[in-house]
Amino acid sequence: MKAELDRVTEAIIGAAIAVHRELGPGLLESAYEACLAYELTERGLLVERQQELPVIYRGMRVDCGYRLDLLVERAVVVELKAIERLERIHEAQLLSYLKLSGCRVGLLFNFNVAVLKAGIRRLVNNLPE
User: How far apart are CA 103 and CA 126, in angstroms?
Assistant: First the structure.
């Protein structure tokens, strides 16, 4: 499973770098989301955009309006930003999405940087399976 997740995250990072090289910084998050979804699909990956993410409270499903930017291969949560800089709150948001979704790995991208490598965070949900 770990090897498969590593393969998928590497493919996602490669696709994000390709999108960033083509578009550069300065666009809206929604533009990067659409282009990255397209790029991932072209690379043969299953991509779901704006997937609803309910909260389960005492066995009851509560729709709180959370949405995953991208869910890739039903295993990797991708959160996109186009902001001045990533903060701890953005990492906390992704960790919360991982916990709520049950996914083990998430990628956080900030496309508003000169070189995308500076705007990538890979986070792991270490909760037991």
Answer: 10
Instruction: Describe the crossing of helices 2-23 and 29-42 by its angle, rounded to 10 degrees.
Output: 120
Number of helices followed by number of strands (H, E) in the chain:
3, 7
CATH number given to 2-124: 3.40.1350
Dihedral class, residue 19 (left if φ above 0, else alpha if ψ from -120 to 50, else beta): alpha
In the chain, alpha helices (H): 2-23, 29-42, 88-101
First-to-last alpha carbon distance for the chain, in angstroms, is 12
Q: Is 49 exposed, middle or buried (0-12, 13-18, 19+ CB in 10 A)?
A: middle
Question: Does residue 20 surpass a pLDDT of 90?
Answer: yes
**Structure tokens belonging to residue 61:** 């499903």
User: pLDDT tens digits for 75-101?
Assistant: 999 999 999 999 999 999 999 999 999
pTM for this entry: 0.93
Query: Cα–Cα distance between 60 and 54 in angstroms, integer?
Result: 10
Residue ranges per domain, the chain?
2-124
